[in-house]
Amino acid sequence: MDELDQNLIGLLRQNARMNVADLAYKLKVSRGTVTNRIRKLEDSQVILGYTAKLRPESEPSSIRAWMEVLVEGNQTRLVIASLLGEPGVSALHDTNGRWDLLAEIEASSMTELSQILERIRLIKGIRSTETNIHLTSYR
Asked: What is this structure's pTM?
């Protein structure tokens, strides 16, 4: 991936609906070049898809939380596979520092969140967890 690809991805992150002509103008390349680059980025799975950014308050029934996970010894792959299979986990990140993994969790109610957390805490290989509920987003 070269600088043009990185700049193209940056523009698409800002506005994935920007048309090819505007992207070409901003990048100072032809529309064909932009189209080909996007196709290659999609084919190579650098770009996995496009999504809409929503204001958190536009989804009032959605509760979000972050669960930090400490994994026992060499159980990381098992724990990752288990967390990826949990429907309440919307994203999973490998981290550095005190915690090994960060799971982003979405639930429709506090009861559902509690059930998700209970299921996760029972996963073999998890030593401990700490959960923070998302209250407000400023950006």
From this structure: 0.60
